Amino acid sequence: MPAPRLNRVAVLVLEGAKPLDVGIPAQVFTTRASMPYEVRVCGAAPGLVTGGDGLAYSVAHGLDALEWAEIVFVPGYRFPDREDPPGNVVGALLGAHERGARLAAISTGAFALAATGLLDGRRATTHWHYTRALAARYPRVQVDENVLFVDEGSVLTSAGAASGIDLCLHIVRGDLGVAASNHAARRLVAAPYRSGGQAQYVPRSVPEPLGERFAVTREWALHRLGEPLTLDELARQAGVSARTFSRRFAEETGYTPMQWVLRARLDLARELLERSQRSVEQIAADVGLGTGANLRTHFQQILGTTPSEYRRTFTRGT
Prior knowledge:
alpha/beta; globular
């Protein structure tokens, strides 16, 4: 049996590229049995690229890698608001997009995507420190400073370095399913899912013990998704009032507590659809959604598909 074709990922390193921003997609998508991707790190030309924070990168590929790639990542770089990327870089990004590649920016890499005009009229984000500069330099871009990442289909943008992990896991989840995304998150010791709509940072400080308590509460709930879970019960487990719990929970996750529980149940249902042959009715009961009809309704409303179609899409080797 021939080996499955790998998904092709290019990481475009520009002058002043930030180390974490470069390393995140390179590590998440590195070829391994559980991650069927092939990664090429490239620059405007092969050779040495001066990076940010005292590092440099020796890249084996030039812009020809963008002709090969199906996903192109543009990591953040220093001083993105001072001048546009070189014309040949902008042209290569446009050419990759025209051939059907997805373009994904981490942090200030959004400035390079904006220079192509592909973000005009679309929502986008970048590191919170640069959101105003992005909006001023590219006024046709709908800059959202209060999110971790934005998926506009063929162009995706994310905030600071850590949210680049969220964006990469979001892409893996769409390409390979929840099981693969959760596996990658465990390998990275990262949160398996944070809402793209979660605020980048909350100006008002949240006491650290409360944040830790909420993390424990979420973990507690994940092990009880098949049981009835109410707002009062979650708040009681966290040791705060329901009102305080609702407000702080939304600040931390981007969802109300019960929205988060519903999506956690859907994620568990997706994983069971990917990995087991249980019926839709059985899975609905296992994840706390009661009936197959209820599961189908939420699947359609939130994921835009049916459990059966989802299973057909993500069942491998059958």
